[in-house]
Fold each of these.
Amino acid sequence: MAVAAPSFPGMLRVLALTSLFLQLFLLVSATFRKYRVPALLRSCIWLAYLGGDALAIYALATVFNRHRQTASTDHGSVLEVMWVPVFLVHLGGQDSITAYNIEDNELWARHAVAMSSEAAVAVYVFWRSWSGGQVPESSPALLLFAAGFLKLGERLWALRRASFTRLAAVRSSAAGRRTPAREEEEDAGDDYIPLESYVHLASGYVQSQATGDHVPRPKDNYVFHVHPLIEPELQDVLMELFVDFPAPYPRRLAYLRSFLALEDDDAYEELCALLNQAFQFFYTKKEAAYTVVGIYLRTLHHAPGHRGQCKLQRQSQGRICALLWLADWRFVTSRILPEMQRTVAQFNLIGFATRRRWPTMVVMRIAALFRCKKYVNQHWYLGHLSSTPIIIEFIGKDLKSRWVDDLTNAAAYRRGQWTLRRERCYQELGWSVTELPFDEAVLVWHIATDIYLDCNNGIENPPATADERAAVKCSREISNYMMYLLLFQPDMLMPGTRQSLFAVACREIKHALRDQRQRLDERGVARWISENPNAAQPGDHLAAARKLAEAMMQMNDAGRMLKVISGVWVEMICYSASRCRGFLHAKSLGAGGEFLTVVWLLLHRMGMEVLADKLQKPEIPRHVQILP
C-alpha cells in the first residue's frame, strides 16, 4: 500500500519547528564557544550554525515553488505568508553568533547576495498574497516582514564591520584624523622619537613603578607628552593591533604606563577582558549593536507596531532579551567551564611516545585495531591547565627585568640568547638557539627540559624556594604548550613551522626504546634516554636534546639552570607570540582563544614589539648595540 506524501502545510510546520529548535539551540549554546567544552558540543554548534541558514533557505524555496505553481487561493496561504517573515528572522541569526569562523566575516558579500535572493523570494510571496487579497492591511505579517528585513540588515552590518579588509581600510583612513591628544603629540614631534629615547623612558617607567620614584627625563632634547588612552580609543587601538598596524612610540609608552599601574590580578583580568571584547567584535553582534547604524537598526527592529497590539507580550519579550543580552550567560563560571584563553593546553612528546608504545587504556587498544591509535592518542591525552595567571605573572616579571637590565635590546625578544648571556652560559648552550631553526630549537629544548627536570629536579627533590617552584612549574607548562602549538597550531608557533618534526621525533624515541622491554612511565623514559648514550643516533633531534641536557647537568648549579630554562622558555613563547599575525590570533578566538594570544596582548600592553612594530620600525642607529 502506497504511503501518502505529507501535505504542504504539514511539511511547512516541520520545517518551521526544526528551524525554531536550531535557533533556540544557538541562543543557548553559542556563547559556550569561548569555554572549554567537549568537542561533540562544539561540533553541534557548528552544525547548527550551518544548518540554521540552510533550513531557513530551504523553507523559503519551498514556499516560493508552491506559490509559483499554484494560485494559492486556499486559506493555508495566509499561514504561509506568516511563516515567511519568521524564516527571514531566522536568517538574521542570533546576536551571540554572527560568524563561526573569521572567514565568515570576509565572505560578507557572499552572504549579502544569498540573503538578497531570499529576501526577494519573501517579497514575491508577500506580493502574490497581497495582490490576491489574502493579506489585510492590518495584518501582523507587515510588521514581521519589516522585522525580518531589519534583522538581515543587522547581521550583514555586523559581518561587514568585522571584515579584516574593511577594518584595515577604515583604520588607515582614521589614522590620519587628528584627535586633541594626537595634535599635541604631533606638534611636539613625538611621532619621530628615536628608539633609544623610547627605551630609556620606558625603562624609567618600569624603575619608577618598582621604587615609587619620579620618571627620569631622557638624556636628549626630546619632550614626551604621553596621554592615557580614553575608553572610546581603546576599541580602535585593539582593532589596529589585530590588523597588524604599528603603534608609534608615544602610544606604546601610554600602554606601558597604564598597564604598570595595575596589580597582577587586575592586569591579567584586563587582558582577558580585552580578548573578550575582541571576540564580541569579530563573532557576535554585541559591538556592532552599539554603533550608530546598529542602534538605528535595532531601534527599528524593536519598534512597536499598532498601539494596542500585543503590548504586554512585546514588553515581556523585550525584558527577557535584555536580561539575556546583559547577562551574557555569566552563570557559566570559570570553575565549571573555564574559558579557553584562560587555560594552557598541555601536550608532552615523551609522554605521547610512552603511551604509544605501552598503551594503558582499553580505548587505546581498541583504537589500535581500527588503525587510528595515533589520532586518538593525540586528542585523548591533550590536557588543559587553568594556571594562566601564574604564567602571565611570571612572564610579566621577566618583561620588567628586561626593561631594567637591557636598555639596548629591551624592545624586542630573541629566542633565548638574552637569558643565556645574562646567566653566562651562552658559550655552552648558545648553539641550541642560534644554530637550529626555531621549530627544531623548540623540539630540542622540550625534550632536554624533561630530561633535566626528571633527572635532577623532579618529584623526589622539590625546589626549596617559591621562585624555584614557580620556575619549574612554568617551564614545564610553557614547554608542553609550545609542543602543543607545534603539533596542533604550527602557523601560530612560527610561519613555516614543520609539523612533520613531531612525527620524526616520535620515530627517534621509538628507535631509542627498541631494546627496552620493561614498561616505563614518562619519567622513566626520560631517565633511560639520559643514562644510555647509544639511545640516540648522531645527528637526530634526540641526540641534540641529550647533548643539551648533559651540558646543563655538567654545570652543577640547579638554581642557575632553573633560571636558564625558565628564561629561555619565556623568551621562546614571547618570540613566537610577537611574530604571529593578528589575523591568526583573531581566528583562534573563534575556537575559544589561545594562551599565546594572551601573551601577545601582554607584550603589546608592556610596550614590546609585535610583528607590525618589528617590520615597520626605522633602522637602528649604529651606536646602539643589538644582540645577535
Amino acid sequence: MFRQSLAAAALAGVFTIAAFAQDEAYRLPPQDIVDIVDAPAAPWTSLSPDRRHLLLIHRENLPPVSELARPMERLAGLRLDASTNGRHGPRTAIGLSVIDISSGEERAINLPDDVGLSNFDWSPDGRYAAFVVADGDELSLWVADVHRARAREVISGGLNAVFDPVSWMPDSQTLLVHTIPADRGPMPERPVVPAGPVIQVADGYEAPVRTYQDLLEDAHDAALFAWMAETQLVLVNANRGRPRPVGEPGLIYSADPAPGGEMILIGAMEQPFSYDVPWSSFADRTYVIGLDGNEIAEIARQPIADNVPIGGVITGRRNVGWQASHPSRIIWSEALDGGDPRVEAVERDSVWMLDAPFDGEPVEVARFEDRYYGTQFTSEGQTGLAVEYDRDTRIIRRWVIDFANPGGEMRLAEERNLQDSYANPGSPETTRNEFGQSVAAVEDGYLYYTGDGSTPEGDRPFLRRVSFETFEAEEIWRNSGENYEEVIGLVSPDAATFLTSYQDPVTPPNVRLHGEGEARFITDFANPHPQLNEISRELITYEREDGVSLSATLYLPADYEEGETLPLLIWAYPLEYNDAATAGQVRGSPYQFTRVAGTSPRFLVTQGYALLENATMPVIGDDPETVNDTFIEQLVMSAQAAVDESVRRGFGDGERVAIAGHSYGAFMTAHLLAASDIFRTGIARSGAYNRTLTPFGFQSERRTFWQAPDVYFELSPFMHADEINEPILLIHGQLDNNSGTYPMQSERMFAAVKGNAGTARLVMLPYESHGYRGRENVLHVLAESIDWLNRWVLPEEDPTGRTPVEPEADGAGE
C-alpha cells in the first residue's frame, strides 16, 4: 500500500537528486506523507487545580515559513518580536474548550477569530485560566471562567511578554501583570555610523563561558534590549479590570507574589549588560516590595556571572524564592565550595531562610554533601522534599526537612542513581495549600506517587500510595495490557478517582476517568492518520560486543512479510552513563500511539524502510572526566550490534543501512561514517562537528580544549572529514540558536567533505532554528531525506562502489 517498486524508487531517487541539484525551490515528499503532515493535531489538556474541569487547548498545525519570517531581534540569548514586545515565533494554540469531569460535557469558549493564545495560568482556586491573546501586533490579557465557559479581555494591549507576563495573586481574583511603561519612548534606531568600536576586556580571572548564541553585540543591541525588557508591573482584577501600577518601571524578569499575598519578590537585571553571556547571567538584584510599590528589603545582588566554573554555580545567595507553606518567608541556597565542583569539600551547599520584614539575621536550615537543587514543599506543616545531586556519581537524594525546625534532623526519602530508571519511585501528586501554592499532597499520612514504571519489558506507569513517615510504597494501580496509560492527576485527594492519559498503537492519547465504576473516557480524539494502523512496532533488546544491553523500537511497513529483507534506517542519540547496568535499561513502551508528525524518521516506514528508532548508543565510563576518551569506540560497537541484530532477525541484510540523528545524533552520525564502514550513508541534522568551536565543554564533557586538546581533536568529525567515504546529507536551520550548533558547523563540515573529494549535500533551511517548524521546510526535509536514502540505500548494489562488509549472522539474544 505504502511502498513503490524498489527498483523504480531507486531509479527515481537518482534522477531526482540530479535534477534538483541546483534547484532552490521547496519540494514535496510523496502525497501520502503530505496528507499525514497536514493532519490536525489533538488538543493539549490541562487539569484545573480544583480537579473539576479539563481545559482543552486547541492547536494549529505547522505554520507557514512566512510566519517564521517575521522580523526578529536576537538579543541577550532571546529571540524577540519588537512589534509585539514578546517572544518571536509562530502561534501554536488557537482555541479553547472546557470539559466538566463529572458530566463529561464539553463547551467551547468563544474567542476572537484568527488569534494566537499563550502563557496559560490557572487561578489557585481553579475557577479561572488567564492567557495572552496575540492579534496581529497586539498582545492582550484575557481570563476564561471555566465554570461558565466564557472569556473576557482584562487588559487591552500593552503587555510586555519578553518574560512570563502574568501570574495570579493568592486571592484568585487579582492578576500581577507585566506591561509596557506608558512613557518609555520610541524604539531605539541603529545609528548609521557607530559612536565607536565594540570593546571587551579580560581582567585576569577565569571566565569559561559556553558557546551561547544570539548575544548582545554592541551598544545598540543593549539599548534595544533594555527598551523591550523595561516593565511596569500592574495589579488588575480578573472581573472588573482597571489596572493599578505597582512600583516603578524596571528591567524586571520575574515578579512572584508572596504566599500571603502582601508582598512581591522581584528579580531585575542591572546595567551594564554583558556581551559574553545571556540575560540569565547578567548582573541582577532581588528585592521585595509591598503592594503599595515601596521597597521593603533587598535580598540579593549578583554581578555578571561570567566566571562560573564549568558545571558550577554562582557564589552568594542563589535560587531565591518564597517558602510555599509560609505567608512571607524567603529561602535561598549558598555554595560552601566557592561554587566549584572541582574543589574537594565535605559539604557543598547550605539552605537559608529569612522572615518578613527581612531585617533580622538569616537562619541556616540545612547543609548538603552535594549540590542542592531546590525543595518541593508539602501540605504537611512546613515540611519539604529537598533535592541534592552529585554530578560525578549521578546519585540523587531527597530529604524531608521541616522548615519549622531549622537545623533539625533530616529524613532520607530517596537515594538512587538518577539514570536508574528501574528504581525511579516517581514524583508526588500535588494540591493547592491554604495560600494557593502548589505543594506535594499529603493525605492522612500518605503521599501519592506517579511514575513511568520502567521495566525490562518497557514502561508500565503506576500510581502508588507512599507513607510520609517510612516512604514504604503500596501500589494502587499499574498500566497493563497492550496499551500505554499514565496518571495525569488525582480527582479525589485519596486517589479513589483519578485521570489517566490512555493510548495504544492505533489510538492517540485520550483522557480517562478511573474510580467511578468502569473507567470511562473524558475525551475522544481521533487518530489523525488511520492509514498507518497496520505499521508494526516492537521494542527489541540485544547486546553489543562488550556485553552491554541495548534496545530500540523496531518499525516495519504495513505490508512487510516475514523473512523479507528491507533497507534499514537507524535513528539514534548517544547518552553518557556511569555503569553498564543503568545504560542497558529499557526505556519507552511498544504500546504508545504511533504518532507520525513533523520530520519524524517514522515517515520512512511508509516508503518501504525498516526503522530502528531510538537505538541506544550508550557511552559508559565510571570516571565522568574521561568517559569521552572511548566515545567513538563505543559508538561503533553499538552501531554494529544494531545492524547485526537486524540481520539476525531477518528484516535487514547488513548492507542497505543508513544512520541518522539530530543535534548530538548528527555529531554521532558523522563520527560513525568517519570511523567505520557499517553504513552506506548518513543524514545529519543540526549538528556540531568541530569541537574547537565549543572549547569550554560540550554535552557532558567537562574538560576545556586546553586541558584535553587531543580529545577535542579526536571528537571533532571535521578533523576526520577525509575519512568520510560514504555520502552524507547535512541539514541545518539557518537561524539555529542552540548552544554550539552554529549553522557554520554544517557549512564548514560540508566544505571539508567536499574539499576532500567526498560526497555530500548541504540543505540550509530558511528561518529555522534548532528544530524545524515551518510547513514548507518540514516537507522539504522529508523530501530530501527520502530522495537521499532512495539513491544511496535502496538499491541492491551499493551505488558508492564499496565492497560490502560481510554481516554477522549470529547476533546477541533478546
Amino acid sequence: MEPAVHNLLENSARIRPDKVALVQGDLRITYRQANTRANRVAGWLIDEGVLPGERVVLLLKNGIEYLAGYYGILKAGAVAVPLNCDLRVDALRELLADLHAVAVICGSEGEQLLNGIDSDLFGIRLLLIKDASGSRTPRGARVFAWDEVVTDADLPDHGLATNASALAGIIYTSGSTGAPKGVMLSHRNIVSNTCSIIQYLGLNENDVQMVVLPFFYVMGKSLLNTHVAVGGTVVVNNAFAYSAPVIRQMAQEGVTGFSGVPSTYAYLLHRSPLAAFRDKLPALRYCTQAGGHMAREIKQRLMEVLPPHTRLYIMYGATEAAARLTYVEPEMLVEKIDSIGRAIPGVTVRVLDEKGEEVAEGEIGELVASGANIMLGYWRDEIATGRVLDANGYHTGDMGYRDGDGYLYVTGRKDHLLKVGGHRLDPQEIEDALMATGELLEVAVLGVDDHLLGKKLVAIAVSLQENPSDKVLLSRCLSRLPRHKIPSEIRFVAALPKYASGKIDRAACLEAPPLAGPCCSGRQGD
C-alpha cells in the first residue's frame, strides 16, 4: 500500500523516537513527542465526529502546534487547509464560505481573526485554540483548549487506512494571477514530490533545515515533509525580518540547509551579516531557491558570498505541482545560470505549442508538466481546473524553451505580457535589466493606463542607494534595452509589498508609498 503523508512522521517516530524533530527557540521536540501530539489531535477530531474528507483549517504560525495539527488532521482522514494568520477578516470569510470547514485549529492570532465570524454561516462546529485570549469566538462553535487536548501522554497511532489518491490538503494560491484558488493535493501528490526532492537534494537524518518560509505556503510545507520523512531536524524562525539573529542561529544550530524565495536572498545579501558569517557556517551544505524568477545578479552574488562548500540549487515549481518541477544542479549553475534546469525525478516537463504539439529545440512554447505530483484540481472550480489540466498534463502558463542539453528556460508568463505603444513586452526582461545595473534591491515593472500609449511602463523599485536617482538608473538601462522597453517612470519605495510567502504582490505595488524626496519621473511624455 502506498504511504500516506502522515506515515512520514510515524515512520521517523518509530525509527528515531528520541531524535529532535523541531527546534523553536529554546524548545526542542523529539519525533516521539511530535507523533504523540499529532495522535492526540487525530483522536480529538475523531472523537468529536469529524469524518474523513471533511476540511479542517489551520490558522497557526510555524511551530510544534502546526506540526502536530497538520499531521493529526491527516491521521484522522480529514483534509488539512492551512491559511495565513495575517489574512484580512473579509478574505477569511470568503475562504471559509468556499471551504465549508468543520473545525479550526488556531493560536491567539487566529482566534483574534475569527472574532465576529458567525460559525453557523460557515459550518464550523469545533475550535481548538492554543493560548486562548478569551476573545469572543465564532458563535455556535464548541471551544477546546490545546493544552487540555494535546498532551505528551503516550497514544498509539490510529492507523486509519488512507488511500493514496485521497485528498490530503487544500493550499490556496497567493492570487498573484487572479483570485486565490484552492489547489487540491492528494497524499500521492505530496509523497511523490517529497521523495523526489529528497532524492535530488540527497537529504538524510543528519540534515538540519532552517525554515523562515511559512508552512501554509507550498514550499514551506515541502520543507517540513521532506525533513520529517528522512528524520532530519527543522529549525523554525518566524522573525526573518530581523535577519541577523537568523544567521546567528544557523551557525549555532549547525544548519545544513536554507531555503528561500528571491526576496529572501536579496535581503540576505544586502541587509544581513551573511558575508561576515561566511566562515562561521561550516555545516551549511546547500541552499535552495524557488518561488519565482531570481535575477542573474543575485545568483552570481550568492555564489560569491556563500561559503565555498555550500551548493546552490535553483528550482522551479508551482503549488499545483505539490511544490517542485525542475532544478539546476549546482555544478551546472554557472553554465546554465538563466535556466530553471531539468525535470526532477518522476516528473516530465515538455514545451508545447497551442495545439499540444512539442516544439523544436530553441522554439518558444508553454511549459506543460506531468507526473504523480500534479494536483487533483482546484477546489470547487471545474472551469479553472479545465483551463490548466488536460491529457498533456498541467499547463503552467509559463512560456519558455529547451536548449540542446535539455535544460529549460522561462521567458515570461503568457498572461503577463504588456502591450505598450504597439509592442508586446515581457516585464521580467525589463526587471532583469534594471537589476543588472547593481543599483536595486528589488523591482517590479507594471503596466499603467496612459492616454497616449494605452499602457506605459512603471518600475516600482527599492534602491540600494541613500539618494537614488532615476536618471542614473535609466541611463544604465539604455545599454541593455531598446528605448521602447525603458520604463516611462520609476518610483522609489522603501519596500515592495509581498504576500506572506515572500512573493511580490504586484497588484499592490502601485499603492506602495513613495520615498520622501523629489518625484522620480523617468521619461514621462517621451
Amino acid sequence: MLTMKIHSLSLIISVICLILLQWLPSGTNTCHALSIREATIWDLQTAFKQNQLTSRQLVQFYLNEIQRLNPILKGVIEVNPDALYLANKADLERKAKAAGSYSGLHGIPVLLKDNIATKDKLNTTAGSFALLGSVVPQDSGVVMKLRKAGAIILGKASLSEWSAFRSPTAPAGWSARGGQGKNPYVLSATPCGSSGGSAISVASNMVAVSLGTETDGSIICPSSFNSVVGIKPTIGLTSRAGVIPITPRQDTIGPICRTVSDAAYVLDAIVGFDYNDAEATGKASNYIPSGGYVQFLKADGLKGKRLGIVRDPFFKFSEKLVAQAFQNHLQTFRSNGAVVVDYLEIANISTILTSTLSGETTAALAEFRISLNAYLKELVASPVRSLAEVIAFNKKFSDLEMIKEFGQDIFLAAEPTNGIGDAENKAIWNLEELTRNGFEKLMVQNKLDALVTVGFNASPVYAIGGFPAISVPAVYDSKGVPTGICFGGLKGTEPKLIEIAYGFEQATKIRKPPTFIP
C-alpha cells in the first residue's frame, strides 16, 4: 500500500513538473540568427562556417537542456565530463582549418545508448548497477568511427535495462541506473525501448544526434513513439564490437535523429569494416554505396518505387483519425509517383510474430549467454564476469535494482542453456525458412522496393532475417501520441529506403516538437 501511494505521488509530481516545463525558461535557444532547437546537422555546420555558432556553445546549450528536462524525461543516464573540452578542441580544429572540420559530424555532439562502449570517463552499463565501474578495453567500433569523424561524445542515453532482455515485466524505458524514461509528447504514453533514451533525448532537443541498438524493434519502436527518425541497418553494416550483446545474429547499431537527412549523415559516419567484427562487417561492406548515403536524399525519392502493403496484421488501427492518416499516406505515395501494391500476405506471419513459435526465443537465449559471457570476460575490470554473476548480483542487491518488482526471468531462462545444440540449430533453421518463404518471397515475387507498415509491429520480420528498416514520423493520435511509418527492405537496400523515407518526409512534413502533454 505504501509503495502504491509513493508511486501515485511521484506521478502527480511528474505531471505538475511537466506542466511547468512549458513555462520555465530554457537555455539560450539562439546564437546570432540561428535557432539551435530543432536545428539539423546541415544547419549546425552552416552556422559553424558562418561563425554564428561554436561547438562549445552548442554543447553548453544541450547541457542546459539536459539539466532542465532530464530530471523529468530521464533520457540521459550520464553526461561526459569532458564534453566541453572536446567542444573546445573541435573549435580549435575548425579555426585551424583542419581537414574535414567543416563537414559531416565534426563538432556535432552525439549521445550513445548506454550499451555502446567508450574508453573514457563514461560508464557502459546497459542501465544496470552490476556493470557500474566496469572498464572496457577500448572504444566500440562505431565510437571509433564517430571520433574519427570529429563527433563529440556528449554522454550516454538511458535504455530499457539490458536492452529489454532482463525481464518481460520491466516497463519499456526503465533501468535501475536511469529510472523510468518518459515520452516527451505524452507523459503517460510509453517511450518504448530498448533505445528509449536515445529517442527521448533527440525528440526533446537534449541532443540532435544519438545512436541506438536493435535486436528486435529497439530502434524502430522508440522512434515511432517519440516521433523521430530511426534507421535499423542491415546486420553487419555497422560494427557490433564493444556493444553489450544480445545475439550477434540479430544485433545492429543505427542512428536516431529528427530528420532523415541527419540519420543519413550519421549512417555514413558509422558504417564500414571493423577488424574486431570482421566477418559481419566484411561481408556487409559490399553493400555500402560509393559516395555514401547522403546522395540518396532525393525529394522525388518515391517516384517509381514499388511499395508493398500487408494489411493483415500491419494496417489495423484503434482510432479513425490514425486510420485516415495512413489512408492519406497511401495516396501521398501514389501522387508522388510510387506504385502501391496493396493487400499482400506474408506466409506464416503469425508464427514469425510469435517469438516462442518461430524459434527466435530459443535461439536468442542461448546466443545471449554465450555472447554476454564473452563480452564480460574481455572487460579490463568488472564487478561481474558472467551471466551467472549478474544474476547473483541482482539477487544480492534486490532492493537497489528493484528486482522484487520486475524480476529477471529472461536471465534465469538463459543461464541453463549450454551453447548451440540441436534445439538451437533447429530454431535457427526455422527462422531462416520463415524468412525465405515469407518476407524474401514477398519482396522478390512482387518486385517490391519496400514493405510499408504502421508503427513497429513488423520488427520481427526484419529482425530474424537481418534486414534494414527506417521509421519516419507519420501521425499523432487524438491524445497527441505519435506513431511512425516503417519502410523495410532486403539486405543492403538502405539507399532505396533512404530515398523512400526522405521522399515521404519531404512530401508530408509530419514531425512537430514535443508538447509535454501531462
